[in-house]
């Protein structure tokens, strides 16, 4: 599946538990030798009684707490499976509610409240105001990037405001910033350019993944950071390389709502020993894929 090009391999482990070693996750995630993905999603039984628990692994095998685009994709599958207009998904970041729209491919997810305190993001040192922290790369008198906004939307994000997205080579600076000592849990790095008070365009370096076509939590974090700083209104369209996401930071309860498209690309079978896979004839789109090896 994918959400605006942010792509996922999805397993249904609600009946048969699935715990793949890091080496196998990397093998399947490799775009040359395996299926290739930004994140691997394992749908499990929810300990809290939600419709499902969503476990998320990056391509490098690291487990993360949240993925907005994946939440929309899994929400769509669960709603198609149940026939209901909503689904509750448990993640390591908490319970997230997905709701359908007039278009079955388009899903809204309540991503909850952002975390804005320095120790919640987390940062390696205290900052009273996380709208712009002291961090820069490049010469002191002419930094390449500086004073990012930082937000946690289930995972840590640093947003650098730039005059144009091509002003900085994110492929070059992304790895360094992801692993900067300021971020003890690493960070997702976003370049953001404000187009108007209702539109922003961004490019994202995702921790454990690299450059990505879309990152839902980065879009949420960017919207929150822009609204906090008075750059946009509370309802804003975030343009990513893979397409647009509609974001709203509700004033009533502080929750962030994200709406965007989802796509089921194909179903198939994979050999867990080699990473090789083959596509199968389309099955019931409402059913999640089961972890079967072809060997």
TrEMBL record:
<comment type="function">
    <text>Catalyzes the stereoinversion of LL-2,6-diaminopimelate (L,L-DAP) to meso-diaminopimelate (meso-DAP), a precursor of L-lysine and an essential component of the bacterial peptidoglycan.</text>
</comment>
<dbReference type="GO" id="GO:0008837">
    <property type="term" value="F:diaminopimelate epimerase activity"/>
</dbReference>
<feature type="binding site">
    <location>
        <position position="188"/>
    </location>
    <ligand>
        <name>substrate</name>
    </ligand>
</feature>
<feature type="site" description="Could be important to modulate the pK values of the two catalytic cysteine residues">
    <location>
        <position position="206"/>
    </location>
</feature>
<feature type="binding site">
    <location>
        <position position="58"/>
    </location>
    <ligand>
        <name>substrate</name>
    </ligand>
</feature>
<feature type="site" description="Could be important to modulate the pK values of the two catalytic cysteine residues">
    <location>
        <position position="157"/>
    </location>
</feature>
<comment type="subunit">
    <text>Homodimer.</text>
</comment>
<dbReference type="InterPro" id="IPR001653">
    <property type="entry name" value="DAP_epimerase_DapF"/>
</dbReference>
<dbReference type="Pfam" id="PF01678">
    <property type="entry name" value="DAP_epimerase"/>
</dbReference>
<feature type="active site">
    <location>
        <position position="67"/>
    </location>
</feature>
<dbReference type="GO" id="GO:0009089">
    <property type="term" value="P:lysine biosynthetic process via diaminopimelate"/>
</dbReference>
<keyword id="KW-0413">Isomerase</keyword>
<keyword id="KW-0963">Cytoplasm</keyword>
<feature type="binding site">
    <location>
        <position position="155"/>
    </location>
    <ligand>
        <name>substrate</name>
    </ligand>
</feature>
<feature type="binding site">
    <location>
        <position position="6"/>
    </location>
    <ligand>
        <name>substrate</name>
    </ligand>
</feature>
<feature type="active site" description="Proton donor">
    <location>
        <position position="67"/>
    </location>
</feature>
<protein>
    <recommendedName>
        <fullName>Diaminopimelate epimerase</fullName>
        <ecNumber>5.1.1.7</ecNumber>
    </recommendedName>
</protein>
<feature type="binding site">
    <location>
        <begin position="68"/>
        <end position="69"/>
    </location>
    <ligand>
        <name>substrate</name>
    </ligand>
</feature>
<feature type="binding site">
    <location>
        <position position="39"/>
    </location>
    <ligand>
        <name>substrate</name>
    </ligand>
</feature>
<feature type="active site" description="Proton acceptor">
    <location>
        <position position="215"/>
    </location>
</feature>
<keyword id="KW-0028">Amino-acid biosynthesis</keyword>
<dbReference type="InterPro" id="IPR018510">
    <property type="entry name" value="DAP_epimerase_AS"/>
</dbReference>
<feature type="binding site">
    <location>
        <begin position="206"/>
        <end position="207"/>
    </location>
    <ligand>
        <name>substrate</name>
    </ligand>
</feature>
<feature type="binding site">
    <location>
        <begin position="216"/>
        <end position="217"/>
    </location>
    <ligand>
        <name>substrate</name>
    </ligand>
</feature>
<keyword id="KW-0457">Lysine biosynthesis</keyword>
<comment type="pathway">
    <text>Amino-acid biosynthesis; L-lysine biosynthesis via DAP pathway; DL-2,6-diaminopimelate from LL-2,6-diaminopimelate: step 1/1.</text>
</comment>
<dbReference type="GO" id="GO:0005829">
    <property type="term" value="C:cytosol"/>
</dbReference>
<comment type="similarity">
    <text>Belongs to the diaminopimelate epimerase family.</text>
</comment>
């Amino acid at each position: 599946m994918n959400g605006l090009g942010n792509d996922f391999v999805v397993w249904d482990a609600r009946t048969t538990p699935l715990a793949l070693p890091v080496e196998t996750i990397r093998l399947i995630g490799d775009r040359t030798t395996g299926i290739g993905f930004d994140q691997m999603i394992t749908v499990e039984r929810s300990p809290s009684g939600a419709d499902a628990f969503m476990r998320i692994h990056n391509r490098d095998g690291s487990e993360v707490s949240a993925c907005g685009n994946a939440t929309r994709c899994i929400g769509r599958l669960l709603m198609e499976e149940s026939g209901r207009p909503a689904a509750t998904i448990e993640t390591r970041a908490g319970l997230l509610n997905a709701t359908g729209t007039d278009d079955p491919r388009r899903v809204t997810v309540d991503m909850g409240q952002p975390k804005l305190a320095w120790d919640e993001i987390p940062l390696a040192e205290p900052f009273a105001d996380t709208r712009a922290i002291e961090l820069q790369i490049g010469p002191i008198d002419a930094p390449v990037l500086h004073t990012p906004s930082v937000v946690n939307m289930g995972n840590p994000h640093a947003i650098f405001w730039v005059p144009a997205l091509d002003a900085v080579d994110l492929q070059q600076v992304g790895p360094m910033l992801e692993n900067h000592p300021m971020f003890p849990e690493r960070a997702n790095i976003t370049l953001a350019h404000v187009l108007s008070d209702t539109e922003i365009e961004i490019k994202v370096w995702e921790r454990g993944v690299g450059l990505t076509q879309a990152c839902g939590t980065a879009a949420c974090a960017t919207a929150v950071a822009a609204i906090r700083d008075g750059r946009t209104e509370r309802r804003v369209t975030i343009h990513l390389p893979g397409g647009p996401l509609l974001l709203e930071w509700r004033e009533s309860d502080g929750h962030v709502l994200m709406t965007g498209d989802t796509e089921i690309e194909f179903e198939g079978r994979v050999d867990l020993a080699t990473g090789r896979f083959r596509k199968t004839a389309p099955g019931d789109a409402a059913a999640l894929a089961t972890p079967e090896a072809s060997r």
